Amino acid sequence: MNPAPADDRSITLRIDRVAVLGAGVMGATIAAHLANAGLRVLLLDVVPKEPTPDESAAGLTLNDRAVRNRVATAGRAGLAQMRPSPLYLASDLDRIEVGNLEDDLARLRECDWVVEVVVENLAVKRQLLGEKVAPHVAAHAVLSTNTSGLSVNALADALPASLRPRFLVTHFFNPPRYMRLLEIVPSRHTDPEVTRRMAELLRRRLGKGIVHGKDTPNFVANRIGVFAMCNAIHHMLDLGLTVEEVDAASGPATARPKSACFRTADLVGIDTLLHVARNSFELLPDDPQRETFRLPGFVTDMVARGLLGDKAKQGFYRRTRGEKRETLYFDHRTGEYVAARRPRFASVDAARGIDDPAQRLRAVLAGSDAAATLAWRNLRDTLLYAFERIPDIADDVVNVDHAMRWGFSWELGPFEMLDAIGAAELVRRAEADGVRVPERLRSISRFYAVEDGRRRFLDLGGGGWRDVPVAAGEIDLRLLEEAGAVVERNAGASVLDLGDGVFCLEFHSKMNAIGGDTLSMVHRAVRRAEAEGQGLVIANQGKNFSVGANLALLVAAIAEGAWDDVALTVSAFQKATMALKYSRVPVVAAPHGLALGGGCELCLHADAMNPLAETYMGLVEVGVGLLPAGGGTKELALRAIRLAEQYETDVSPFITKSFTTIAMAKVSTSAAELESLGLLRHGDGITLAPDRLIHDAKQKVLALAASYRPSQPASGLPAPGRSVAASIATQLWNMRAGGFISEHDETIGRAIAGAMTGGDVPAGTLVTEQWLLDLEREAFLRLCGERKTLERIQHMLKKGKPLRN
Fold it and tell me: What catalytic reaction does the record list (predicted)?
C-alpha cells in the first residue's frame, strides 16, 4: 500500500544547502562531491570526549569550538590530502562548513537535505535519526541515510510520522566522486514524489546513475557483486588457483574492470567485503545460495592480521619498497606473500585486442584452460543468481545491469552478459555441469532488443517487452544510429542528425584516435551543418573522447622518411581545426574522459566547450618528443596575446603560462581545472551527468545559433617576439643545468617557445594566425627528424607511457 502523497508545498523543488552527518571517509567524501556540484555543505560529527594533549597545551578545553568541532574539521582537512582527489578544485573546500552533533543540530533547519553517514549500526542510526535529528529537520527538507544494506523500514519506524514520507536511502558508492552508482531505496512510508524528485536531482546535479532498489539486505549492487566475489573465492579453492590467476580471468577479459576480483577487494577493503558477506549470510536465511556468502577462514585471518587492502597498503596484493620494487600476492595456502608471476592463459590471450566486450567474453568462455573454467563457473553461478533475484531485489533487469556497470564497473551487466553468451547456451552448459536451472529461463531467448531506435527489455514479471526508461535530456547515439540518424560515415567518424538543426560529429576509431578518416569527416560535418542546420556538436560515447592523433601512422612515416606525407598530414590537421573555428555555424565540443593531444586541439577550436565533469584534457605531445601541431600551440599563443591586449599589459606572463601548459604536458584532473590551464574559457559550461552531456552541448549550440556571428582568421597580432623566447630559453638552460630536464626536453621547449612567440622577430611585429600555424608546423617537422623523438614515440606505442630521454 502506497502512502498518501505529501502536500506538494512540503516537498523541496530545489536543494542549495545540505547537512552531512558523519565526517568519516565516506561522509567527508560525500560532502566533497556535494561541494563539487556547487552545493553548500554543513559537515557535522560527534564532540570528542576530551581535548588532545596538543589542545590542552594550547589552553583549549571541551568548551572551545575548535575542540568540539575537531572530528569534522579533521574530516574536512583530510579531503585535501586524498589521492585520487575527491574534489574538482581545492577551492571547493570553501563550500564545506564544519560543526558538531550537539551545538549545531538547530542549524539543520537551514538545510534542504540532510544525509546521515554514521557507523553502519542499526541501533546507532535509529537513535541519531529519531532522537537527535528528526526534531530539527525543516518541514520542506528531505532526510536520507547512506546505509549500504540496513533496513530502510526499520530506520523509518524510528522517525515521527510527519517525517517518514520524506525519508529514504541514498546509498553512495565509494569514492563518491568517481563511482557513478547511487542506489535509492524508499521505505513503505516514503512519498513516491519525494523518491522521484530526489532521483532526478541526484542524477542531474550530482551526475549519478540512479538504481531503484528494495528493502532487502545489501540492496542491488552489493548483493550481486559480493556474491560474484565470494563465488570466485570458492571456485579458486576448488580449482587450486592463485589470487592473480583468478584476477586474470575475472577482469577485462570477461567484461569486468581491471581490478578484477581481488584488486577490487583491496580497493573496497577486505574487512568491508567480509562485513557485507557476513551481513548477507546472517540476514538471508532463505537464500538458496546462502553458503556462498560464508567466506573461507583465510579471509577472516587476513582481517585479523590487519591485511585489509589498499588502506593498509597490504591485502591480496602488496607492493614492496626500496630499490627493487615488485608486486607480491597473498598465497591463501601458506598465508604468506609471494612474488607475482603474471600468469598467461590461452583463453585470456584470445580476448586481447577485442574491443567489443561481448565478443571478448565469448572468446574466453570458448577456451578450455583453467582461466576459462574459472570464468565459466563464476559467471554461470552469478548470472543464475542475478536471474533468480528478480523481483526480490529490483523490479527489472535494467536496474540490476545498471547497478553492476555503475557500481562495480562491469562493462556488461548480468543480463547483458546473458545476451552475449546466449540464454539457451548458458542453460545447456549449466545443465551439463549438473547445475539446476530456473524453469522460466528455458523459455527466454533474449533480455534486450532494439526496435525503431528504442531499446527494450523483457519484463520478467510477465509484462512482455517494455521500453528501457529514458531520462529527461538523455541522448543515446547508438539508438539514434539504429533509428537512421547517420547522415555521413566512414571508418573513423560519423555525422548524426540530433534534430532541431543540430548535427553531431562522432568518432568511432580504436580509442577514438584521430587519423585521416576523422579529419576528412570534420570537413564533411561542418559543410553539412552549414548547409542544412544551425550548428554542430563534437561528441561521442566511447570510453574516452580521444587519445589524440594516430601515432602508429606517424612513426611509420618517420621511419620511411616520408617527410612530405608527414607535412601533408599536419597541414590536414590544421585545416580541420581551422574549419571548425571559422565555421559559419556554431560548434560546441563535449569532451569526456581522456581528451589528449589532437583530441584537445579539436576542442580548443570549437566556439565553446561543454565538458563532462570527469574530463582529463591536455596537450601532451612533449611526451612523444613533439609539440601540438594541430593548432594547439597557435591557439594558446593567440589566447595569451588576446589576454594581454584585453588588459593592456605585457604579454610575457600570459605566454609563459601557456608555454608551461604545453611544455609540462599538463593534464586536467577535472573539467573544472581546465580554466586554470587556459583550455576552458570563462562561460563554458560543465555537465556532471554523462547521459545529459550531448543534450547540454546541443542546447548550447542552439543558444549560440540565435545570434551567431562567424569570425575570420586573426591578423594584426603583436608577436611576443624573440626577446620572450630568449627569456624562456634561459629558464630551460638553467633547468637542464640543474638536472631537472634532459637535453631533448630543452630542444622541445625551445621549439615550443619559438612557435608561440612568433619566431625570430622583434616584439610587437604584427603577424597573422596563419603565420603562427606555419611556425608550429615547421617546428613539428624539425622535431620529427630528431632520433630521440622517434625513440619517444616508439616507447609510447610499446609501453603506453612517456620516455624522458
Answer: a (3S)-3-hydroxyacyl-CoA + NAD(+) = a 3-oxoacyl-CoA + NADH + H(+)
